[in-house]
Amino acid sequence: MTRLRSRLRLEQASVTTGQTMSQLSVLGRIADSGPITASALAQAEHVRAQSIAETVATLKKQGLVEANPDPTDGRKSLLSVTADGRRLIDSIVDLRGAWLARAIEQDVTAEEREVLAAAAEILSRVADCRLEPAPDEAWRV
């Protein structure tokens, strides 16, 4: 997984304008989630609110994200992707998808593709899992 992620980063390098993987991850999450608060974003990205604040500030400065008042709670802001942000996401998704499709077509058998599809679905569920600690465990989610 780490090697594949590194390769996808390398392939996307030609279309980004200097964003870090963290910034691109947050940008993608905002795009996928629709308008979202910074605290909900931090929870979804599994990072501290301070880290999200720094990342969002950079994305806003780059014109990729905007904040608007939450109509249900004036103390909060809702983050949304701008048109420029959407264009960047689309270009990265297209590039990654094209590279990955070519690589799979070239190096993965039909049987392996079925296994890969099943594994991708399982890994997606694991990545989104919110574990509750057992009563005798000291860790927190």
Written account of the structure:
The protein has 141 residues and is mainly α. The protein has helices at 2-12, 21-33, 38-45, 49-61, 83-107, 110-128, and strands spanning 65-70, 73-81. The protein is built from six helices and two strands. A two-stranded antiparallel ribbon has the order 1-2. A hairpin with a 2-residue loop joins strand 1 (65-70) and strand 2 (73-81). The two termini are 23 Å apart.
Number of helices: 6
Arithmetic mean of pLDDT = 86
Q: Strand share of the residues?
A: 5-15%
Helix content: 55-70%
List keywords for this structure.
2 strands; mainly alpha; 6 helices; 141 residues; two-stranded antiparallel sheet
Topology:
Elements: H1 2-12, H2 21-33, H3 38-45, H4 49-61, E1 65-70, E2 73-81, H5 83-107, H6 110-128
Antiparallel strand pairs: 1-2
What is this entry, summarized?
With 141 residues, this protein is mainly α. It has helices at residues 2-12, 21-33, 38-45, 49-61, 83-107, 110-128; strands at 65-70, 73-81. β1 (65-70) and β2 form a beta hairpin.
